[in-house]
Amino acid sequence: MDNAYDVAIIGGGAAGLSAALTLSRARRRVLVIDAGEPRNAPAGHVHNYLGRENTPPGELLSTGRAEVSSYGGEIRDDVVTAVTGAVPHFTLSMAGGGTVSARRVLVTTGLVDELPDIPGVAEHWGSRVLHCPYCHGWEVRDRPVAILATTSMAAHQALLWRQWTPDVVLLLHTAPSPSPEELARLERRGIKLVSGEVVAYGQSGAELADGTLVPVDALVLMSRIAARVSALEPLGLSPVPFEANGIPLGTHVPSGLGGATSVPGVFVAGNVTDPMATVIAAAAAGVSAGGFINMDLVLEEAAG
Fold first, then answer.
1. Within 10 Å of residue 148's Cβ, how many Cβ atoms?
2. Model confidence over 119-151: pLDDT tens digits?
3. Do residues 130 and 152 lie in contact, with contact meaning Cβ atoms separated by under 8 Å?
4. Domain count for the chain
5. What is the DSSP pairing of strand 145-148 with strand 80-86?
6. For the whole prediction, is pTM greater than 0.90?
7. 104 and 234 fall within a common domain
8. Are 76 and 168 in a shared domain?
9. Please, how many CA atoms are within 13 Å of residue 159, restricted to the half-sphere of its CB?
10. Which of 21, 120, 189, 304 counts the highest number of beta carbons within 10 A?
11. What is the spatial distance between Cα 188 and Cα 131, in angstroms, rounded to a whole number?
12. Cβ pair 197, 209 in contact under 8 A
């Protein structure tokens, strides 16, 4: 077993590195273990991150790693397969072999996007297949955009994306038909509706089952999200369903103040607990979690 750390952080994205920076500056011995699978890897740039607008995701993480290291934080490229133990002695087993001991554990492993099984969707994810208008809307402004209806949130998505472009079409696909009230709103905003299941997406647009081609520059959809926390199963901590406006969207790990979970000494931050958080919000959550974890350790040390 490696020497014990004050805090082991599983996941080296914006949330994990921000927490590591906060804790390292608090003179804690910190280890970040990163699997190298960031959710936003397919995206070209990070947006709405004040001071870092338009930064490539890989560059943001590289800069963050260097900042953490400059304060003595350690970073290891590996996968945590299991977390066992309890406060103040957690053991993390690594896919690359060996174990790590830590007094506290912070999980910032984020989510996996489960995409519709439509040819072309996965290939264009993050470039011409999008989900968040605040992340990508400016890049497709005034261009033809289609909303792929997979849930009853589709009408809401179409109305939102209409802010960035007047050329929005709602592909009804397999979702329930919009309500009369939603139909009236869509009509007032000039949003067109197209019936029929989408069977493929490519450079020319979306292809329907009857062969019709809907020419659009971007396809917007809502992926199903799944929290990446299988390593916490030995602790009895499993993801639970996540909903938005009463619509099931996937799973997450609930948390309280500072990212505390139902397992003492185990914290979460970023998309693994808040699926709707943007990159800058995930980073802020990491800073908050780092502060709470440091105080938790301070109180433990003061108790003797």
1. 23
2. 999 999 999 999 999 999 999 999 999 999 998
3. no
4. 2
5. unpaired
6. yes
7. yes
8. no
9. 14
10. 21
11. 23
12. yes
